[in-house]
Design a protein that fits this description.
The chain is an alpha/beta fold. The chain contains eight helices and 14 strands. The chain is globular.
């Protein structure tokens, strides 16, 4: 049941994109009403953590993080969610905790509390060619669509920032056919189903996406649970030094 709450400080504030990415994670958490820009939303909270689903894109990521700060004043803001792989060795289900996050359109670079490598924020769903370009131009390990917005809010409100991303599509997988159906408020499922119904050549890619999404959601849930149960151990595990060993 949703309710309105005043500011109640937590240690960790998580910003995800879509509810389907974190449905298992927030099962059983309390729910509070929220506003993401000019639209209604929800904040899930439990113990030392609160989580908000932003929708898609940099602007929504920023607005959601801002709302989280105003409602729960987290010490650390963490951008979590699905990302596309730019490296062959990063298969679906792999956790990526970057040291830096860069917005492709502005070239603005954000530093994370800990991690290894770089995630790049794009303005659309990345097909295979876009992921290859992100690797070549930016040295990206993976790409997302919200992280830079979340990082920008963390910087503006003087909060520590980190990111936990999980690979949902491999470097050789081309999800460009999804781009026209991903909107700021979410995925246009009805229009997409009608689109693929007439294009059976896309069915194998859609089936793979469904399998990979389930794998990614489970891996993300496990990583966030690990983060919450042992923050010090989690930071050590994913520090640059730890990943280089």
């Amino acid at each position: 049941m949703s309710q309105s709450v005043g500011a109640s400080p937590v240690q960790f504030g998580f910003v995800a994109a879509l509810e389907r990415e974190v449905a298992g994670l927030v099962r059983g958490w309390s729910v509070a009403d929220a506003r993401i820009g000019n639209r209604p939303g929800r904040i899930y909270y439990s113990g030392c953590a609160a989580l908000i689903c932003a929708g898609t894109g940099v602007e929504r990521g920023y607005a959601a993080a801002k709302e989280l700060v105003e409602k729960f004043s987290p010490r650390v803001i963490i951008s979590i969610g699905f990302a596309g792989s730019c490296a062959a060795e990063l298969a679906p289900g792999t956790i990526v905790v970057p040291a830096t996050l860069e917005e492709a359109s502005t070239r603005k670079l954000f530093h994370c509390l800990f991690g290894s490598g770089k995630v790049v924020t794009l303005d659309r769903v990345a097909g295979k060619a876009m992921k290859q370009e992100a690797a070549l131009q930016f040295g990206a390990l993976a790409v997302d669509m919200e992280g830079a917005g979340v990082a920008s809010a963390a910087e503006e409100f003087a909060r520590e920032f980190s990111a936990i991303k999980v690979i949902s599509d491999g470097a050789d997988e081309d999800l460009g056919f999804l781009a026209d159906f991903v909107k700021a408020d979410g995925f246009e499922t009805g229009r997409f189903v009608a689109h693929i119904a007439l294009r059976p050549y896309l069915w194998p890619a859609v089936a793979a996406l469904q399998r990979n999404s389930k794998l990614a959601s489970a891996a993300l849930e496990s990583a966030v649970a690990e983060c919450l149960s042992d923050w010090r151990g989690f930071t050590a595990k994913y520090s640059s030094a730890a990943q280089l060993r």
